[in-house]
Every structure is written in structure tokens, then in C-alpha cells.
Automatic annotation (TrEMBL):
Main location group: Golgi
GO biological process, one term: protein transport
Pfam family of the protein (one): SNARE
Family: Belongs to the syntaxin family.
Subcellular location: Golgi apparatus, trans-Golgi network membrane
Keyword Nucleotide-binding: no
Species name: Bugula neritina (Brown bryozoan)
Bilayer-spanning residue ranges: 231-250
Protein name: STX6
Length: 251
């Protein structure tokens, strides 16, 4: 129990370090380019990682609660149990901080994106007002704004298509795995049936050999004289043959 507990603690520490690194990279990209299309995916990965750590922490909390009742049973001292409890509290505090930072930066990214859109709209409105004085310049600005919007919509559609293709690939992979397991099961069944057929063939050969020996004995007996004792022997052999046939049919 103690070794598994330490292993879980190390796993939580590693996962927590990875989340902190991902969040730092997310902040860097956000400051450099708030309109980067990869930012939403990165934010979603960070949230999923935090949720996974929370689940691991719940399992660790249950383990520590069990150990806390009878620490001697698991070769642990009270000090070691307190260390694990302190570790759980520290990780919970860090997770709360990371969740707040990820939510704040997500809101900041949305705010920055909205600001850029408003700036673009203001530029478009300003260009539209100036069009009454400079018609040619106004048309150029409007065309540039429309082109920018078209590019943004095209990128969003491409991202949706890529996600849909990824989901289809995952579904195909799952189907291939199911078919592979099914083919393996069928192969195993065929091998077992082949073994049963081989055993049945050997039994048939043994039975045929026994029948040949019996028929030879009967033929030998029929060549004897018609003495009463000999006919009794023939009758006994016939009874044995009938019993043998019944036993073969039962098997």
C-alpha cells in the first residue's frame, strides 16, 4: 500500500508539473498572439489535465483515509500519514490556483479577440464615413475588411472539418480493433474444433480396428464344426458384438 501510495504521489506531481508548463506556454502564446487558432485547443487540454489530476487526487484521498484508520497495518507512521495529508492539501491549493489562472486567461483571450473585432469594425465604419469624401479609398477598406472576414470564416470551417476527420479516424480505429478481436476469437474457435475433429478421427480408427478384429474372430468361429458348444460360443460372441456396437453408439 505504501509503495502504491508513493507511486500515485509521483504521478500527481508529474501531471501537475506538466499542467503548469502548458499553462505557461498558453500565457506566452496569448500575449504574443491572442488570435492564434490553437489557443482554444490548448486551453481545453489544460482543463482536461486539471480534471484528470482532480480524479487522481480523489483516489489518493480515499487511500489515505483508509490508511489513516489503521496505519500500523500498512507499516506507516503517523508522521507519514500527515505528510500525505499535507501533500493532498497543497495539490488542491495549486489546482485551485491553476483553474483560476486558466479561466482568467481564457476570458482575457476572448476579451482580446472581441477588442480586435471591435477595432476592425471601427476601422470599417471610419472607412465607410470617409467614403463620402474619398470613394475609392472607402471601397478598398471595405473590400479588405470583407476579405479578412472571409479568411477568418474559411479558417474556422477548415478547423471544423479537421476535427470531424479526426473523429472519423478514431471511429475507424475502434472498428478495426473490434474486428481484430473478433477474428482472433474466430481463429481460436477453429483451432479448438480442429483438435476435436482430430480426436474423433482417432477414435473412429480405433473403433474400426476393433470391429475388424471382431469380424475376424467371428469368421474363424464359423469355420468350426456344428458342435453345440461351438454354437454357444458363436452366440456369446454375437452378444458381445451387439454390446460393443451399443457402447460405440453411446460414445
Amino acid at each position: 500500500m505504501a509503495k502504491g501510495d508513493k507511486g500515485a504521489t509521483l504521478d500527481v506531481n508529474d501531471s501537475l508539473l506538466k499542467v503548469e508548463q502548458s499553462l505557461q506556454a498558453y500565457k506566452t502564446q496569448l500575449r504574443a498572439n491572442g488570435g492564434d487558432p490553437r489557443l482554444p485547443d490548448l486551453a481545453r487540454d489544460i482543463k482536461n489535465s486539471i480534471r484528470s489530476i482532480e480524479w487522481d487526487l480523489e483516489d489518493l484521498q480515499e487511500t489515505v483515509s483508509i490508511v489513516e484508520k489503521t496505519p500500523r497495518k500498512f507499516n506507516l507512521t503517523s508522521e507519514e500519514v500527515r505528510e500525505r495529508q499535507n501533500f493532498i492539501r497543497t495539490v488542491k491549493h495549486k489546482l485551485a490556483t491553476l483553474k483560476d489562472e486558466s479561466q482568467f486567461n481564457g476570458a482575457e483571450a476572448s476579451k482580446k479577440k472581441n477588442t480586435e473585432k471591435q477595432s476592425l469594425l471601427s476601422t470599417s465604419v471610419h472607412s465607410g464615413g470617409a467614403a463620402s469624401q474619398y470613394n475609392t479609398s472607402g471601397k478598398t477598406s471595405a473590400a479588405a475588411a470583407a476579405n479578412s472576414q472571409f479568411i477568418e470564416e474559411t479558417q474556422q470551417q477548415q478547423q471544423l472539418m479537421i476535427r470531424a476527420q479526426d473523429e472519423q479516424i478514431d471511429n475507424i480505429g475502434a472498428s478495426v480493433k473490434v474486428l481484430k478481436n473478433l477474428s482472433t476469437h474466430i481463429g481460436t474457435e477453429l483451432e479448438e474444433q480442429h483438435g476435436l475433429l482430430d480426436e474423433f478421427g482417432h477414435e473412429m480408427e480405433n473403433t474400426g480396428s476393433k470391429m475388424d478384429n471382431t469380424m475376424k474372430k467371428i469368421a474363424k468361429v464359423t469355420k468350426m464344426s456344428t458342435d453345440k458348444r461351438q454354437w454357444c460360443a458363436i452366440g456369446v460372441l454375437l452378444v458381445l458384438v451387439v454390446i460393443l456396437i451399443i457402447l460405440i453408439s453411446v460414445l
